[in-house]
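Private note to self, pasted from the team thread so I don't lose it. Backbone tokens:
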């Protein structure tokens, strides 16, 4: 096992299909180890492929928008996390070394009533199920404490929750959401919740990609193992004639 600095990217893509070329170029040029993307807008039959990476994804099976995927460098050992049943949050998780990374999205169209009933309960289910935890995502929670112009219902509940939970909030200094409409103000709604068991850098905003959300980057330091190459025999391509000849030679006259 080796001590590694993992480069992690998070981004709300607002639709990946027409941005996939620039996304692939960026992660290869910047040697990103793990990229977590929400609002892919991919439907159930669409599979994402990025050369040099393995992908897990959770596409929307109904309704518009949504969709999650995580890509991990193919030389890193990882496993998909079995997540608890959630009522509101869309989540997808991977375990790399001891780190549990959970990509999370709170649908922007959620009503205050739905948020009141389910938002914090979902966060509690996740945080009580895992340690060495990073909840990464657009959870549409605005609060002045983390550089938003005003508070919304999710932000108020999250602020209260953080005051009594084991999790801490890690946010970049710059706004992560820059709306096109002049009537809306920039805010910081792309957040990282962590129990701070594993060392990590302060996240920062990257001015890349065509979306109203800017990607954020951060690093974590963990012990990881590289993925072993699994050799799978393809029996249909075996030289059975040569095999029989070798077997006859080894066995000798019967």
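Design output:
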């Amino acid at each position: 096992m080796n001590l590694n600095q993992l480069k992690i990217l998070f981004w709300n893509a607002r639709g990946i299909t027409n941005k996939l070329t620039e996304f692939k170029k960026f992660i290869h040029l910047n040697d990103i180890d793990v990229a977590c993307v929400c609002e892919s807008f991919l439907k159930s039959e669409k599979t994402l492929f990025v050369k040099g990476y393995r992908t897990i994804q959770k596409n929307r099976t109904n309704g518009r928008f949504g969709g999650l995927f995580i890509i991990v460098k193919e030389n890193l050992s990882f496993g998909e996390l079995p997540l608890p049943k959630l009522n509101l949050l869309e989540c997808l998780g991977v375990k790399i070394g001891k780190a549990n990374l959970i990509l999370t999205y709170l649908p922007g169209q959620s009503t205050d009533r739905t948020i009141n009933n389910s938002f914090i309960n979902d966060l509690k289910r996740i945080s009580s199920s895992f340690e060495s935890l990073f909840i990464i995502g657009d959870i549409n929670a605005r609060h002045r404490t983390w550089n938003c112009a005003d508070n919304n219902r999710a932000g108020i509940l999250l602020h209260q929750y953080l005051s009594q939970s084991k999790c801490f909030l890690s946010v970049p200094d710059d706004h992560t959401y820059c709306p096109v409409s002049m009537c809306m103000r920039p805010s910081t709604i792309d957040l990282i919740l962590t129990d701070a068991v594993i060392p990590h850098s302060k996240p920062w905003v990257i001015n890349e990609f065509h979306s109203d959300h800017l990607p954020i980057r951060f690093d974590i330091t963990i012990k990881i193992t590289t993925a072993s190459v699994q050799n799978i025999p393809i029996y249909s391509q075996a030289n059975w004639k040569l095999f029989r000849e070798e077997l006859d030679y080894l066995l000798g006259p019967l």
